[in-house]
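ugh finaly. both done.
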Amino acid sequence: MTVFIHRRMPEASLGSVDRAMKALGLNGMRRPKGIRRTIPAKDGRRAGDLLARYFTAPAPNRTWVMDFTYVRTWAGFTYVSFIVDAFAQKIIAWNAATSKDVNLVMTPLRMAIWQRQCEENPIEPGELIGHADPGSQYTSIMFTEHLELEGIRPSIGTTADAYDNALMQTLIGLFKTECIRTTVFHAGPFRTITDVEWATAGRVDR
């Protein structure tokens, strides 16, 4: 609701939206429990947890957190991966795909690095921590080797513990609630990956 109001009244505060909803007898959408997405790999290279649930950063390009979620469409599941800079708590790259292979998470990583270079704020080798859940995509040899090549220090949380990647869990919850389960960014059902990409672009790149 807040996103919907801000598109028409950018000056509206969170408190005013909350009071207006209470006056009208409206309630916010509740987040249902999702399915398991993090499946640790048995043969993947796994780094330690460098954040210890401390999701803040003193400057940009110091801590990036990564995760992905799923969206049901008529054509099957679509998976959407995100990268967030902990300093600004902002999504800096995302990617949608119909497969959960390593390219689902590799593509936004390349996009984020390229975007920061275009902004003349490139990452410095050894300064940036890339934190993710212990899923097979993030612990794969291909992904960890790319992190090493870019000078990004890998950080992996524990299995089945949402608190170890709480920032991304919160962001994904908001994405599903505000973008996928409403008609604000897409009218009607999600038929294909194109519908998901259109809605995600409207939510993230607005």
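ok and the 2nd:
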Amino acid sequence: MVLVGTAAVLVAPHLGVPMFLYPWLGLGLCAAMLRMQRLRFADTGFSWRCFRAVPLLIGAVLGLAYAAINVQLIGPLLAHVLGERLDLSDFAFVRAHLSGFVLALVLAWVIGGFYEELVFRGFLHTMLMLHLPRVPTRSAWAVALTALVFAAYHLQFGPFGVANALVFTLFAAAVRQRWQRNLWVVISFHACVDMTTFTLMRWGYL
């Protein structure tokens, strides 16, 4: 049942479920599956009480640093290896209109930061840690499997998008492991990476 629910959460955005609807659907399913395991989102490291300036600032600084490394090093290296760059045609609205840019910044927090981190580094990582065999490498397996699922979640962006998502999720996993009891750090990290990317698009650097 947990596997079926998890699959539904991951494929919903790719089946035409509206953007304003699938986060509610996904988080609702995650909450239901956590309850089946007698858990809550608090057990994944997420709590509204931890929504404070310091964790958000730490995530923001790390996110800006990663975005700079991604633009200057990771992106060009992947482009050289794969022989292609990221297709940004789906984000033409960011450059076309100021309202589109503002919308993208909001989505960076609501979808990229909040929703995706609760689903992947929160729910999925916790479920894997709960159900994988209790061996010394269990945490590494949970990180690796979460990374692969997160990368596959970005298939619509082609080989470059998948590879870039895979590299990103390894850094996000490191942030999550360092601040295990406060998911807001990695939420802020993810959101600020996306916000920086959208800002560079808007200014014509991407």
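summary for the 2nd one i guess: The chain has a mean pLDDT of 89.
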